[in-house]
Amino acid sequence: MRSDMTPLTPPDFEAFFSARASAIQSSAIREILKVTERPEVISFAGGLPAPETFPVKQMKAAMDDVLTRCGKEALQYSTTEGYAPLRAWIAERNSTPEAPVHPDQVLMVSGSQQGLDLLAKVLINPGDKVLVETPTYLGALQAFSLFEPRFVSIASDDDGLLPENIGESSRGAKFLYCLPNFQNPTGRLLAEERRYRLAEKARALNFLILEDDPYGDLSYAGDKPPTIRSLAPERTVYMGSFSKILSQGIRLGYVIAPEALRAKLVQAKQATDLHTSTLAQMSAYQIVKDGFLNTHIPTIRRLYGAQCQAMLAALSRHMPEGVSWNAPKGGMFLWAELPKGMDATALLAKAVENNVAFVPGMPFFAENPSIEALRLAFVTVPPPRIEEGIKRLAELIRASR
Ligand SMILES: Cc1ncc(COP(=O)(O)O)c(C=O)c1O
Q1: What single string gives the DSSP state of each residue in 277-327?
Q2: Which one, out of 35, 111, 161, 329, has a CA that is 20 to 30 A from the CA of 64?
Q3: Each residue of 285-329: pLDDT tens digit?
Q4: What residue ranges line ligand 1, CB within 6 angstroms?
């Protein structure tokens, strides 16, 4: 600094923030959960896939091969739409006889979270009605909220959202955001019959469907009901992700959209990040093209299925009367309810003091949150620790009554 310059005074940044940014709130729960990174904490909180499933060796070999064969292409800017061979692979994998996917319909995104942001950007005006499940994925509520929609919550039960509850008041909604397979946060699977009724409802009331499906491959039994896209391809945007089946660190997801919408998303993505990492796309393609996922996905399913069973057994063994939970058929989470009137956020504070953590259900509701609900992730905790963690939670619940 030269001596004739005015001294540095930090500006009041609050005054510079947009109204949109000022409306973003920090989460009290996130503050409590910060401590869960300590190794002594048994954490059922994180939504992170199990690190032992990461194909480190395959990724190293794939990157090496890509850089050796076509390093200049891999390190260059590329098209916003994404790496053509990977898009063709995705199109083929997601095609059904009734609803084929053309590679041109596929847009590669930097994680499906970016898909949510781009869709919000191109679809939501302030005050627009957006239909969501009860509860729904917190990250989608965050992405959509920045564009100030009016959320309309659609009631759900153990078989997913209830299409008959999408009534006339939903007419004029821009879209329904739904997670039919092993939903985050509940692990619920949308019943097949409801998928058909949902497709009909969307046509009758003229809204779009945003189908977010990062967990669809993680069915423990390996079966999968039809996607909503296959039932209403003309109005469904499907989001897929490599995060839960390959790696989330490479930030690779995709959106399959009807042409007019895909073109708009491409424009929005250009403004956001130009394109998704070329090296990541080429390396992922190198891994998947010869069928690696055909053996890798069943390995993940077996691991998660066993962890889920371990948690269900521990819950049955230890939980007192009045606590209930579901039994997911796939995915990474289960959903529990504390006895009526018991606050999961208050329980979390005590749980963290006892080195065990979970995520209270409240932030997953767009409206009328349930204080008793909580999400338990079982995939990163080995069974003996699952047993110990659930036992500790059960003791705290007994003591809180
Ligand atoms: C339902 C849902 N959608 C989207 C995402 C974001 O995934 P990605 O890593 O592909 O951005 C997640 C991540 O946990 C999720 O649970």
Answers
A1: -HHHHHHHHHHHTTTHHHHHHHHHHHHHHHHHHHHHHHHHHHPPTT-EE--
A2: 111
A3: 999 999 999 999 999 999 999 999 999 999 999 999 999 999 999
A4: 47, 111-113, 137, 139, 179, 184, 212, 214, 241, 243, 248, 253
